[in-house]
TrEMBL record:
InterPro entries: KAP_P-loop (IPR011646). Residues 49-204 form the KAP NTPase domain. Residues 1-19 form the signal peptide. This is KAP NTPase domain-containing protein. Keywords: Signal.
């Protein structure tokens, strides 16, 4: 009979978590039954036996039970009443009133009085919902909210039980950030034990799916703002997505920095952090915010103001603010433009133990599809450059060898960058060699496949040593000694002489070997070889075309001038110009158009003063 009555009521009720799960003191352990839905009411009142008759029978049975077990009591806890829909909440109240006088049974109904009163007023169209509640409940106990420090301790205890390794951060920086998350952000956003439980459950659910090596503290903070401050969560997602554009060789729009800064300060007004950003500790969680200032007289709203090495620091820690790792915190996967940390480690290991394998890895990165050819290799080298510790002797030598086997292919694949006026991957490679000087220079120069790139590196070291004569030295950029450089140049020029001038014209970026030969070798010999290699008109036009440079001006945009002063290293510029004119007006049609195009880019020698 009781089961029958309970069956009717069971359609209105569902088990809820025990009170202990939301008690930060851990002292409560009550069996609880919560009413979560108010469906099937029509079915209850449409039975052949009325609820009143059934209730009378239950009361009689309970009285009999009371005589047998005088100390027995049933406590029914109905939790979260105010979280139901308006109509359902009122039906629960009616149901509780119907069953409130069962013997041996006590009811504890948990609710927020302000919210439930409003629900009653709305559902019943009355003016005072509080009076209605007072007619139902004999006594209302107002429980004060949990102290913020108790909630923070409760959260720490839950996280330590579930994530012992992550919570036992050893270094001071990690401990400080944990304090920022718990004390400042947790203190501001965690209001109830339910908030703590929801946050803990969110971390439990998602943390195992986040890419390995991610920052636990950052993830807890992100889940906290996701649950408790959706507007700020949306701002964070947009901000780190823009941070990611820097690794994709882009940047936010011109107005984006100020717009994002203003939006941030507006949001932080909620806790009074907009005037003193340091109070929030936000600049410990996200990069580019340390210079954000605000005053009543004026404001500097700009964000994305990264300090030197700041992005690299976040990247090494695989932080939420890392341009290569941010997406893993939201979608559990790296950004599409990013390079995996494992690929970085694999290349370094191969440089040390198997340089040929390292060269193969570089080729595979070069071939990986992207709208900008060579993008992933460029990102990989940028990541190598960001490593704080230099390489040992074997690793540096292996990296140099891998470069010599692949860098001319890089130029062939990526081509000349008209936006930057340089090959960014080559630029990064020379900085990597300055940072990790190889010991196998002479050996690699003798038969390295990328002769054009090797010429580029030799010119870089020549300039660092003050070569050619008259050039100001930059010894801080030199990783080759004077004696080794002289030997290296002899080997390099020997290779130029062996393949000949015509073959050099066919190399990618031929200006590097041409000027390496002319500036660091016998210029008279170079001019003679140039003359020999340009006897036919086709050879001459091809040779002159290799001297196209790069320039970008406001009135003409990007163009490719041919400077007579550079031609002078290889031939008489007046003779070259005169020959171009003859071909432009009297040459064969196929030569005429080419000559005219070259003349259009010609920049004459500046007159001597």
């Amino acid at each position: 009979m009781i089961r029958k009555y309970g069956g009717y009521l069971g359609s209105l009720a569902a088990p809820v978590a025990g009170a202990a799960s939301i008690d930060p003191t851990g002292s409560t352990a009550l069996a609880a039954t919560g009413l979560k839905t108010a469906g099937w009411f029509s079915a209850l009142f449409g039975r052949a036996e009325t609820l009143d008759a059934l209730k009378a029978r239950i009361v009689a049975e309970l009285h009999a039970l009371q005589k047998q077990r005088p100390k027995l009591r049933f406590t029914v806890i109905i939790d979260d009443t105010d979280r139901l829909d308006v109509a359902e909440a009122v039906e629960v109240l009616r149901l509780a009133r119907k069953a409130a006088d069962f013997p041996l049974v006590s009811y504890v109904v948990c609710f927020d009085g302000r919210i439930l009163s409003k629900q009653v007023e709305t559902a019943l169209s009355i003016s005072n919902g509080r009076e209605y509640l007072e007619r139902i409940f004999q006594d209302v106990v107002h429980i004060p909210p949990q102290e913020p420090f108790a909630l923070r301790r409760y959260l720490k205890r839950l996280l330590r039980n579930s994530f012992q390794t992550e919570m036992n951060a050893q270094d001071n920086e990690a401990q400080y950030r944990l304090e920022v998350v718990f004390d400042r952000w947790g203190g501001a956003l965690l209001n109830t034990p339910r908030d703590v439980v929801r946050l803990h459950q969110a971390v439990q659910l998602a943390w195992p799916e986040v890419p390995k090596g991610s920052d636990f503290c950052d993830f807890v903070w992100l889940q906290l703002v996701k649950l408790k401050w959706p507007d700020f969560y949306a701002w964070v997602q947009n901000y780190v997505q823009n941070v990611g554009s820097y690794r994709d060789r882009g940047r936010p729009g011109d107005a984006e920095s100020a717009t994002a800064g203003k939006g941030l300060l507006t949001l932080l007004e909620r806790f009074g952090w907009h005037e003193r950003l340091f109070l929030s500790g936000l600049d410990e969680i996200l990069p580019g915010l340390k210079q954000l200032r605000y005053s009543r007289e004026g404001a500097d709203f700009d964000v994305f103001k990264f300090e030197q090495g700041e992005l690299e620091y976040f990247e090494r820690g695989r932080r939420l603010g890392s341009p290569s790792h941010w997406r893993g915190y939201f979608a559990f996967a790296l950004p599409t433009y990013a390079v995996k940390d494992s690929e970085l480690f694999e290349l370094r290991a191969a440089c040390k133990s198997n340089p040929d394998a390292a060269a193969s890895l570089i080729r595979s990165m070069l071939a990986r599809p992207h709208e900008r050819p060579g993008h992933f290799l460029g990102v990989l080298l940028d990541r190598l450059m960001d490593e704080p510790v230099g390489y040992d002797k074997e690793e540096s030598a292996g990296l140099f060898y891998a470069f010599t086997e692949t860098m001319d292919d890089v130029e062939r694949t990526t081509g000349f960058n008209d936006t930057e006026g340089r090959n960014a991957i080559w630029e990064t490679s020379r900085f990597l060699l300055r940072k990790n000087s190889p010991s196998n220079l002479i050996q690699v120069l003798k038969d390295g496949a990328s002769l054009s790139w090797l010429s580029f590196i030799m010119r870089d070291q020549g300039f660092a040593l003050g070569k050619p004569e008259g050039h100001r030295s930059n010894p801080e950029n030199a990783w080759v000694t004077e004696n080794d450089f002289q030997e290296a140049i002899a080997v390099t020029i020997g290779r130029f002489e062996h393949i000949g001038m015509k073959e050099i014209f066919e190399l990618p970026a031929p200006l590097n070997p041409l000027f390496c030969w002319a500036q660091l070798g016998d210029q008279a010999d170079v001019k003679a070889r140039f003359l020999e290699a340009t006897k036919t008109h086709a050879e001459f036009l091809k040779a002159v075309g290799t001297f196209k440079g790069w320039a970008n001006s406001s009135n003409t945009g990007v163009h490719h001038p041919i400077h007579a002063q550079y031609i002078a290293y290889f031939a008489d510029p007046d003779d070259v110009y005169a020959r171009l004119n003859r071909l432009a007006f009297n040459g064969k049609p196929k030569h005429r158009e080419v000559a005219k195009a070259l003349l259009a880019e010609w920049v004459p020698l500046k007159p001597e003063t």
